[in-house]
What does this fold into?
Amino acid sequence: MNALTWNQNESINPNLNGLEQSDTLAINERSKELMATGKKVYRFGLGQSPFPVPRCVVEALRLNADQKDYLPVKGLLQLREAVAEFHRKKDNINVTAEHVIIGPGSKELVFLLQLVFNSDIIITSPCWVSYVPQAKIIGKGIDVIHSSFEDKWQLTPALFRGYLKNRGKKDRLSLLILNYPGNPDGVSLAEDALKEIAALARENNIIILSDEIYGQLNHSGQHVSIAKYYPEGTIISSGLSKWCGAGGWRLGTFAFPKNLQWILEKMAIVASETYTSVSAPIQFAAVKAFKCGGEIEEYLWQSRKILAKIGNECAGKLNNAGIKTHAPVGGFYLFLDFSNFFETIQSRGIKTSKELCTAILNDTGVAVLQGSSFNCRADLFTARMAYIDFDGARVLAAARTIPVHQALPDTFTKIYCSKVLEGVDQLIHWFQ
Amino acid sequence: MNALTWNQNESINPNLNGLEQSDTLAINERSKELMATGKKVYRFGLGQSPFPVPRCVVEALRLNADQKDYLPVKGLLQLREAVAEFHRKKDNINVTAEHVIIGPGSKELVFLLQLVFNSDIIITSPCWVSYVPQAKIIGKGIDVIHSSFEDKWQLTPALFRGYLKNRGKKDRLSLLILNYPGNPDGVSLAEDALKEIAALARENNIIILSDEIYGQLNHSGQHVSIAKYYPEGTIISSGLSKWCGAGGWRLGTFAFPKNLQWILEKMAIVASETYTSVSAPIQFAAVKAFKCGGEIEEYLWQSRKILAKIGNECAGKLNNAGIKTHAPVGGFYLFLDFSNFFETIQSRGIKTSKELCTAILNDTGVAVLQGSSFNCRADLFTARMAYIDFDGARVLAAARTIPVHQALPDTFTKIYCSKVLEGVDQLIHWFQ
It folds into this structure.
């Protein structure tokens, strides 16, 4: 017995017990393995933008490839200014550069926020895969508000009110995490719901982390932030990963209200002892992205048009076949509810959403991510589908041949997104 | 009173009490502020390589500016292969790609290691600024072994033996952090010391994080890793920041022995829930750096030659004036011991190394970083000087006009590094 191996379990932080690598990344790696064996895989698992990074932003990275200095912990001032201006223009919210922090992905910033903020977190289920594991790593408590298909898998004012009535009295600030347009649901909160949730949060000393990373991918281009109704208590999360197609670049942003600046300052302390600052060339390039000139606006316009078209077609097909899902409002996900097939599924010996997704992947090559990864009950048969398995550069080019204000023709998806439609057919077929 | 501000203290993780932004970064930001007011500042505070990123590596970043995909959590396979090969060639150590993990700076990887590894850490004082604050953020215990000028500010076998004799019996693995060539000391561990420390660590179930980020900047080019004597218990830390001049790029690497792979796997889980993966264009460019072709080797050769020359001249001047420091072995730091001036300093009403460095900065414009930032006792008058305030691109170009195996002429530093010499004179003058 080797002395250096005998005590592995005791040598690992017990908070990590039971945690595995993030499921979204795991499914991506698994899909690649299957593809390497020659299997046709419909890659609806990972939530990555299908579109290339806009050319002007790539060019800005080339121009800044020799930037070598450590940048300020909170981020390059020019970039913080661009992000603040972005939120002022896009969200009509009063943010200035000093209240912005740049991180290596908004995921890292969410982690820092959870680490510095001394309270349990409140989330809605289903929710994005990483909020809960992050809380577990730190040993934080989590209050889960479960939503249903009828709630459109989002927090409703009624659900929030019910939760508040039952929770004990709190002697300190709490933190609610919202995400809209949502991952995994593709749905957004209506403006009257935002207003009511804002009022309830204010009354109950709850601050909100408003994860709006898909905000610019609201298919209508009409994203509204809850900060409109709760400016003093809302931290807005954004970044390059989704609307700018640059997930692999790793750049996220938080914008704070002035009176929560004390949280930002504490996050910056932890940042200075961990990641230090975000990669300098990437930050310089990101300035170009957040300044949002005409090229970016056109790119966003086309992205939304394409995603709306394919998302709605998929939802239509699935609903017709009895797989319940809501028409998408933004982003590139559908959350699928297989409850109509409960007996079929059980008759195949399947007990959990993970087993279901594994069976579907093995039988059909369709990779979707089990609802349990999003903190849904494991025995609810749900899954997230990302309708992004197409060649984003080719599809963008094709969309650009069509006059800007004209709708994409009905044949468009059949020609350019055929694999997505085929994957949906395979999925439907599996249940029949 | 605003409800959202009333509870700030209770709303912050108590582990953060008393922590400020990392001192090295803080002094950089402070120096910039002073310069903005028109003051001449000798920037010996921040530990940043003075040299530009090698041209072939910048070019590789340009070529890969359109890489947009999320890369694997542990890092791009090509890069992990290049890092493994780098350690095999440079350190003569048997590492393979699967035992390498890439992070956004080695600082972040050190943090993850501290987070996942369930034991107190053992460090030598003085030590790099971030080991201890990281432990505090997580709420970890720290065992400090204090070294002195006579120990060359490094861990000696005698000090280690003394520590081990006094510590209680441990029922699990412990973690010792070593850093050589050292920050803040610029000294390295001799091979016989490495051998003895390795044996003691092995006997006592202590694994070693061997921070060798300055390894390739050993001025003789003859860096030896403790992994040579303790392969099964040593994790080697490296990265682009120092030897490749790319601190602002944020890319660090850890190489594990096979039988500590279980720690790497746990770090990857936390990575997947925090930073996800390192920026894709940066990773692709780093492959070029770690492959270490002729251009890189020539760059390293020149870097070492220049740093050795200027470092030794500074040490000579300082010692002549009674400011004690050791001749540098690697990296770009001198650790200054002002104990000969104890009475002069006290007579000026100065009680701590921080007050001393503030007075020196205000009076002379010389920015050096107080010993207390490196976990030295505050009332020991010590400081770290980074002898890097020169135009690295210009100095490299000048060095390249001199035949490779010829020494740099005596006039070289006077012409090309005059500000460093001037700053040292200013510093000496302050004590007289």
